[in-house]
Specification:
heterodimer; A: 350 residues; alpha/beta; D-Maltodextrin-Binding Protein, domain 2; 2 domains; 9-stranded mixed β-sheet; 9 strands; 46% helix; globular; B: 392 residues; mainly alpha; MetI-like fold; two-stranded antiparallel sheet; 2% strand; elongated; MetI-like (chain B)
Chain lengths: 350, 392
């Protein structure tokens, strides 16, 4: 009896052990990671599904919320379970310097000269150009705000405001509201006095601000009337206007735009397929379909020229929208994100 | 004798999966988290030559030529991008600007066509002692920097511990706030959960099932869904405000969301099952004839409750409180969605360091402070409940 039990236990242990050893050997399908929401729904239709058909294999897609720590932990643990990931400009710069990404095979992508300069990087291919801008409900405010100074003016435009919780964008917007010109913006923010000035300007509005953390929140706040105006991602605003018949307005002057890029995680299992996928998603004919679903600008020049005029006017890259908007200074934020976040949290807690 | 030890061996074997699980998923992560907070080898590993010469420097004057030469040699010898990344992250965390400075420097050094004369000719910032002090301070393999920063302390240039400037001090305020919110939530959970459990335990049949179901069903719903539901109920044009205005109780909408009130309401609801269930499980073990017995001996209901039911059920209340409190201090989503800027809890700061800036040293140190504080509270609880059983 004893021996039977003993051998039984041993067999069970052996089975469990061998099963756990055998698991990692299973091949994983190409896994593409993006930002979720209506944007990823659009990507699934125009990139993921067609590429899966072309490949003859499933393409898995997941959503994430950003954060270089997430990428770092996946790569450092070895054998990351993501292949192609869409990242923000800072994550591209930080991860590329830290060796977290594979180098891009630019011949596969059709050559660097086919893309906007800001979309070309050793480790990444630009996927979209997107803006953070003032948004308000045109049905409630007939005469809307036109600048960040208006955003700060609670007498002329009563009601609460919403901004993304964190120093990035918030400090820039405060300085713009305080009268700093867009060309001097990052020079001013680069000094201690400039940071001081931005926080002082924020003090004026602090009691009227509701902070948002995920991109869907500002839409919800506007729709429910919780706030009179908010900062928001331009693609989400155009999206909700088209799907739910809202009349939300985007104020492009004073908006800050940035490029999101596709990267391939270092030593990912499907790294070659991931590069093929990025090439597929960068083809002019495929990319040109995106603005019909989400109003983000296209980094492939030929794709941008193929966008129908009715959609092109909503894009951050449209010349009329581009004139008074500002490119995000990535170098400033990779240097200062940590110390300014600490300072921002201290300011919030006061 | 031998039979006994083989029995011990066998029972140990049966326990083995549990032990392996505990070590693998609890002890080891905890240990590595703590060691992340205090060990700091990223800089020393890559800059051995600089470590030798930087000790002779007075920390005030501009960097000497041997220091610059040693750093150039060290940087040229680096062939691991990820190790370099760890070092730069560590340095940039101590002194903003190292990110761009290092990438500019390494790419200039990697260019064989025109070798730079010295570091200062690559970037003027290399003249500043601040950057070299950051390197010098980061060269020790162990550090108390993260632990000190977790409670808003730091070392000044002379190496003495002092308060960080007010515009960088936030952790202590947020830690105290975290414990305060958790305590309030625990209090309200006890106020609602105790009577609820008494009523549920006094019923039987479908009524009891209904009451328990009402507690358990939300527990099986996603935390995010429950929080989102509170968002809809509490907002300015939400159901609660509309109802109160509809029946004429209030004129202007109550501020129920983006403040402490909302956080407490939502967290109390979410955590209520963890209070009700332990109390209920103790209450149903108390013989039902005790209260009638007290009454027959002349105790009025309140006195009977205070002298009989309350002492007997106190153990359940205490473990409920402990469960709720410990769950509450780790809350993240609910304060983020329902709370205002003054309701951020410590988890959101830990999350920023862990995922936002990949500064696992700081994340580990804050986690450690939270762990120690919780352990202290737990030991107080254990001491109190021991006294309880000792008296009996």
């Amino acid at each position: 009896m004893k021996t039977i039990m003993k051998s039984g236990i041993l067999t069970a242990a052996a089975v469990v052990l061998s099963a756990s050893l055998a698991l990692p050997a299973l091949a994983r399908d190409l896994t593409v990671v993006s930002w979720g929401g209506n944007y990823q729904d659009a990507q699934r239709n125009i990139y993921f599904k067609p590429f899966s058909e072309k490949l003859g294999k499933p393409v898995l897609d997941e959503a994430w919320d950003g954060g270089i720590g997430v990428i770092q932990s996946k790569v450092k643990a070895g054998a990351p379970n993501w292949d192609a990931v869409q990242v923000e400009a800072e994550e591209l710069a930080l991860g590329c310097a830290d060796g977290l990404y594979e180098k891009i095979d630019w011949d596969k992508m059709g050559g660097k000269d086919k893309f906007l300069d800001s979309a070309v990087n050793d480790c990444g291919v630009g996927a979209i150009v997107w803006s953070t801008a003032i948004a308000y409900d045109g049905a409630k405010l007939k005469e809307g705000p036109t600048s960040w100074a208006d955003f700060w003016n609670v007498e002329k435009f009563p009601g609460k405001r919403s901004l993304r919780k964190g120093p990035k964008y918030t400090l820039e917007f405060a300085l713009l509201a305080d009268g700093v010109s867009k060309d001097e913006l990052y020079d001013v923010l680069g000094t201690d006095e400039g940071v001081e000035r931005a926080f002082k300007k924020l003090d004026e509005l602090k009691s009227n601000i509701v902070w948002w953390e995920s991109g869907a929140q500002p839409l919800q706040f506007l729709a429910s009337g919780e706030v009179a105006m908010t900062s928001a991602y331009n693609g989400r605003i155009t999206g909700i206007n088209r799907t739910e018949g809202k009349n939300f307005k985007v104020v492009f002057p004073g908006s800050i735009y940035a490029v999101d890029s596709w990267v391939v995680l270092k030593d990912a299992e499907n790294k070659d397929a991931a590069q093929d996928f990025i090439a597929f998603a960068s083809l002019p004919d495929n990319q040109a379909k995106l603005p019909e679903f989400v109003a983000y600008g296209l980094p492939n020049k030929e794709a941008a020229s193929k966008v129908p005029a009715e959609f092109a006017k909503d894009l951050p890259t449209d010349p009329a929208n581009m004139t008074d908007s500002i490119p995000l200074n990535v170098d400033f934020w990779i240097d200062n994100a940590e110390s300014l976040t600490q300072r921002f949290n201290a300011w919030l807690a006061q | 004798m031998s039979g006994g030890s083989s029995r011990t061996g066998r029972s140990l074997l049966l326990l083995a999966p549990l032990l392996v699980f505990l070590i693998g998923f609890f002890v080891w992560p905890l240990f590595s988290m703590m060691s992340q907070a205090i060990s700091d080898p990223a800089v020393l590993r890559l800059l051995p030559r600089s470590a030798e010469v930087i000790g002779d420097w007075d920390r005030k004057s501009p960097p000497t030529m041997p220091m610059q030469a040693a750093l150039v040699e060290d940087l040229k010898a680096v062939d691991d991008d990820q190790a370099l990344g760890d070092m730069v992250r560590r340095l940039n965390s101590a002194r903003s600007g190292f990110r761009t400075l290092m990438s500019k420097t390494t790419s200039a050094l990697a260019d064989p066509a025109n070798p730079p004369a010295d570091l200062v000719s690559i970037d003027k910032r290399w003249e500043k002692p601040e950057f070299w002090i950051a390197i010098a301070d980061a060269l020790s393999p162990y550090t108390d920097r993260n632990l000190l920063a977790a409670v808003d302390l730091g070392r000044n240039a002379a190496g003495n511990i002092e308060h960080l400037p007010a515009d960088q001090s936030v952790n202590r305020v947020i830690l105290v706030r975290t414990f305060w919110i958790a305590a309030l939530v625990t209090f309200f959970c006890a106020c609602i959960g105790f009577p609820y459990a008494i009523i549920a335990a006094s019923l039987d049949g479908w009524k009891r099932d209904l009451m328990l179901g009402a507690v358990l069903l939300p527990l099986w719903t996603s935390l995010l869904v429950r929080t989102a539901a509170w968002f809809i109920l509490l907002q300015e044009q939400g159901l609660i405000n509309d109802l109160l205005r509809g029946i004429g109780l209030i004129d202007a909408p109550l501020a129920l969301i983006f403040n402490r009130t909302g956080v407490i309401i939502a967290m109390t609801h979410v955590l209520l099952p963890f209070m009700v269930l332990p109390i209920y499980s103790v209450l149903i073990t108390i013989p039902k004839n005790l209260m009638p017995a007290a009454a027959s001996l002349g105790a009025p209901p309140l006195r009977a409750f205070l002298r009989v039911l309350l002492p007997l059920s106190l153990r359940g209340v205490a473990s409920g409180c402990l469960l709720v409190f410990i769950s509450a201090i780790g809350y993240y989503i609910t304060p983020a969605l329902i709370g205002g800027p003054g309701d951020q809890m410590i988890s959101s700061i830990i999350a920023f360091y862990a995922t936002g800036s990949a500064n696992w040293g700081m994340a580990g140190a804050l986690g450690m402070v939270l762990l120690v504080a919780t352990l202290v509270l737990y030991s107080v609880y254990a001491r109190l409940s021991n006294d309880e059983s000792g008296r009996r």
